[in-house]
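Exercise 7.
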Amino acid sequence: MHFPWTTAEVTDLPTVGTAVDAVTDLSRSEEPPGARLRIARRQAAAFRGEFASTGTPDSVVTCDLVTLPYPTRFGLFRASKALAPFLSITNRMQVIRWTESGGRKRVLLFEPSDHELGRYTPYFDTLAQRTPGFLERQFVTEHGTVLGHLARLGIEPAEVDYLLFDHLHTQDLWRWVGTTAFQDDLGQTPEAAFPHAKVIVQRDELAALADLHPLQKPWYQPGAYADVPAEAFLPVNGSVVLGPGVAVLRTPGHVFGNQSLVVNTDTGIWVSSENVIATEALVPEHSRLPGLARWARAWQQEVVLNANTIETTADQYNSIVLEKALADRSQADPRFLQFFPSSELTGAWTNPGTRPTFAHDAIRHGTQPA
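Solution. The predicted structure, written as tokens, is:
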């Protein structure tokens, strides 16, 4: 199998969007981490007004994909006092549609995870091998598939322009963008399910896939990018506006090339990523999860990280504060923010002490399907 690019070749791929000057890549700043945190707050305030003036997309629809177990010590860092070693997270896809100034319609899928192939991520594959089938069925619930949800929404795969992930942990794109060679495990040379779609990714993450660090290896499937055509990707350097009320912000830390989706809706600005797994992790003082509020007070932490990988922890903390400063207050409960975790903490009887205080479950904007 052939890895489709080298680190140097990543710089030669085409890109997309309009650069956001108000938000810079603070992970490359010469300022110390504390100063970067103050700068992140200022940049968020500057970008809020600029972003709101771009308008709103035509619609945002949420689609549940899969609920699966995740170690409590990762999802809630060191803060949780829950007895359960695992909690549950629900991975959801956002379908975002907008109209460009020239009248062209665009469709973006945020977090369109192929969870059937995603289970072969080294960490989850090892966990599955150690878990009896009857027990796994208690923890894993499949709600729907990417293609099934699109059919329900009346969207043809050929209409999809962009695929976007906050980062490429667990992702296998073979069936979405196709490959250039026969794949033994699939028994075929898969054709692209989305023949016109491009994957928007930070150049840093695309380059990292070609030469993974040991801290990264349990969470990536580098073999799943072998034989993927390089032209399937649209790398970006930093933060860009894609369309009216739709932007991608570089938010490094959870992975070097992490990015967040930002959308402007009828209820204000939403931010989405997997930097945290619950909106209350941005305001732990309002959390009823065992241990969170006390831990945050004791350690003077204003956020609780999702920390399965700690590539650059201070950068991740600063990125979360940037997200926190951008998101508007929830209309359902103003104590919490319109931060929508791409994998959201979900209560389950199997995981005592991990039921969220508040959950969004969905972003709703524009015309919704019947």
